[in-house]
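Box S1 | Example of a co-folding query
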Amino acid sequence: MLCKEARRTKIELSFGKRMYLVRLLVVGDTSVGKTSLLMRFNEGHFILTQKTTIGVDYKAKEIMIDNDSVKLQIWDTAGQERFRSMTSAFYNRAQGVIVTFDVTQYSSFMALETWVNDVKQNAPNGCAIMLCANKTDIPMDKWQVRKEEYMLFAHEHKFTLFEASASTGLNVNEMFTEIGRQVLSKNKSELSLQKQTNERDLVSFDEKISKSGSRKCCIIM
Ligand code: GDP
Ligand code: MG
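Box S1 (continued) | Returned holo structure for magnesium ion
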């Protein structure tokens, strides 16, 4: 089990202002729109033909949640989900996970159970989980998943549900803000307060964990 310290990376603030760091993951079958959701949230735009494999593993964005400055660091798969080859290192520092499916692909909805099991087995206890029904901009006659079905799934698992569209931006900001809010309210006393001055520090910290496969405690002070 992951100890508290492993999730606590603490860097002195350059100007005394404090910021919460929240680590999130977006998971789900290939092509459900994970990378597009991230891009919409982070850069505010949508690319119709998103490349499957991306060179960057995460995107970070600073937002205000209620009166707190929060840096959401959102990790995306770089194509590993195709082969279901995501290692536990991918999950083990997550504080929130958005499990995504595509309303026009029934298979992606069927796969949710497996994704949720993966998250529950690999993510730390108490990790917030949300459900995202993506591509809701597509006309309903092309949907393969009925609204009642995914609403029931969310209800049974007690997941907050967002009907979203990376294409139009519907509910994208709301979804990332809400999961950040949930993580914050659960963990506020434990979360590191940090102003990220050097992104490379954090990347190399995470790389160390994933390369070694180690679950040892690591703190950057
Ligand atoms: P990923 O494999 O889960 O990262 O999915 P991508 O973000 O690469 O998206 C797969 C395809 O679905 C791309 O062609 C996107 O343009 C398209 N797509 C993603 N999100 C949406 C959406 O909300 N609406 C529509 N209409 N297309 C989307
Ligand atoms: Mg992708």
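The first strand starts at residue 20 and ends at 27. The mean pLDDT is 80.
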